[in-house]
């Protein structure tokens, strides 16, 4: 991981097209701490003279803090792990629209919120994983199919209290409407092998040790298992490839804070994080796909296979998160 990131200083300083501007400080509120971000941000500071202070914390804690701080907040930018929390921050009125030609031409449409209030930096699929010793990929097709009788007692899910699941159910609502989304979620709950598991790694372990035959997991969690053991008995299946919806993706996102007084510097940092030279190594370190189509995808992810992903705008999905939560509750998803 760090070896990949170390290459960055050399690559990025040589490649950065940005003009030197007056030395300044900006502040990034982030769910990722300095231990992960310092090495990514150092080349930016070296090149521009702009220091980036990181204030890290849990998703909701940071959103509440920015709300309380109002126009006195130090935050210029906000990074979170997915569209659920970016959506909450946006609905709380914390963001302002970004305005950058580079961002417009670099970031594919689904990953830019339609009001330009937040965007995705790196993404992953939340999709089906399976045990190749008990399941043939020819038996797999859609998210909806995981509710069919053939998967009775064979499906594993993570606990309901997970923004990843909220995003996935919000995606179902977007495509099928709330009534059908609820039928699908209830059919999954009927098929569970064991009680909902505490995290994605537990589901992967559950597939490998035979407790689960199929599960709904984020792609990046599998990468370290496969790196350690190439014959690890868990495989990725990209759902909904023959549907109009395709597989659900969600990702690490960034938004500019409404009360920032450093719009130019904050825009520069967003552009830096989206440049192909930064996207490739950082996406690899996070085990995710770079949102910039010109950035190279990590080989482990290429080995998972290529796929078509859902083209719904991240802002649209985030608007259905509250509906998703009530569906999960009424479906008795624990
Ligand atoms: Fe995660």
Structure characterization notes:
With 334 residues, the protein is α/β, with parallel strands linked by helices. The chain has 2 domains: 167 residues, 3-Layer(aba) Sandwich (D-Maltodextrin-Binding Protein, domain 2), CATH 3.40.190; 143 residues, D-Maltodextrin-Binding Protein, domain 2 (3-Layer(aba) Sandwich). Strands 1, 2, 3, 4, 5, 6, 7, 8, 9 and 10 form a 10-stranded mixed β-sheet that branches. Helix 2 links the parallel strand 1 and strand 2. Helix 1 packs antiparallel against helix 10. The longest helix is centred in the middle third of the chain and has 28 residues. It is globular. Bound molecules: fe (ii) ion.
List the helices and strands and how they pair.
Blueprint: H1 2-15, E1 24-30, H2 34-48, E2 50-56, H3 59-69, E3 77-80, H4 83-91, E4 95-96, H5 101-106, E5 119-130, E6 155-156, H6 163-190, H7 200-208, E7 214-218, H8 223-228, E8 235-237, E9 249-257, H9 263-274, H10 276-286, E10 289-290, H11 299-304, H12 314-318, H13 321-330
Parallel strand pairs: 1-2, 1-3, 6-7
Antiparallel strand pairs: 3-9, 4-9, 5-7, 5-8, 5-9, 5-10
Helix pairs in contact: 1-2, 1-10, 6-13
Bound molecules: fe (ii) ion.
């Amino acid at each position: 991981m760090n070896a990949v990131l170390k290459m960055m200083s050399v690559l990025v300083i040589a490649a950065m097209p940005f003009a030197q501007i007056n030395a300044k400080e900006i502040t990034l509120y982030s769910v990722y701490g300095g231990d992960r971000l310092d090495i990514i941000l150092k080349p930016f500071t070296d090149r521009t003279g702009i220091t980036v202070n990181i204030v890290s914390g849990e998703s909701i804690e940071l959103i509440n803090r920015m709300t309380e701080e109002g126009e006195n907040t130090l935050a210029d930018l906000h990074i979170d792990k997915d569209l659920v929390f970016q959506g909450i921050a946006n609905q709380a009125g914390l963001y302002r629209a970004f305005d950058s030609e580079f961002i417009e031409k670099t970031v594919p449409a689904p990953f830019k919120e339609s009001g330009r209030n937040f965007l995705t930096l790196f993404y992953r699929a939340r999709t089906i994983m399976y045990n190749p010793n008990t399941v043939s990929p020819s038996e797999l097709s859609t998210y909806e199919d995981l509710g069919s009788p053939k998967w009775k007692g064979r499906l594993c899910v993570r606990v309901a209290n997970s923004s990843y699941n909220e995003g996935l159910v919000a995606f179902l609502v977007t495509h099928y409407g709330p009534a059908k989304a609820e039928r699908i979620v209830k059919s999954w709950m009927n098929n569970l092998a064991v009680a909902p598991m505490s995290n994605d790694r537990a589901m992967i372990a559950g597939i490998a040790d035979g407790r689960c035959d199929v599960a709904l997991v984020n792609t990046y969690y599998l990468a370290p298992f496969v790196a350690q053991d190439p014959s690890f008995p868990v495989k990725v299946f990209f759902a909904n490839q023959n549907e109009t919806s395709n597989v659900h993706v969600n990702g690490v996102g960034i938004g500019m804070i409404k009360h920032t007084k450093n719009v130019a510097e904050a825009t520069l940092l967003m552009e830096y994080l989206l440049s192909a030279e930064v996207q490739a190594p950082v996406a690899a370190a996070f085990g995710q796909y770079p949102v910039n189509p010109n950035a190279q995808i990590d080989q482990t992810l290429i080995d998972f296979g290529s796929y078509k992903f859902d083209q719904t705008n991240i802002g649209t999905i985030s608007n259905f998160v509250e509906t998703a939560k009530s569906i999960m509750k009424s479906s008795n998803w624990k």
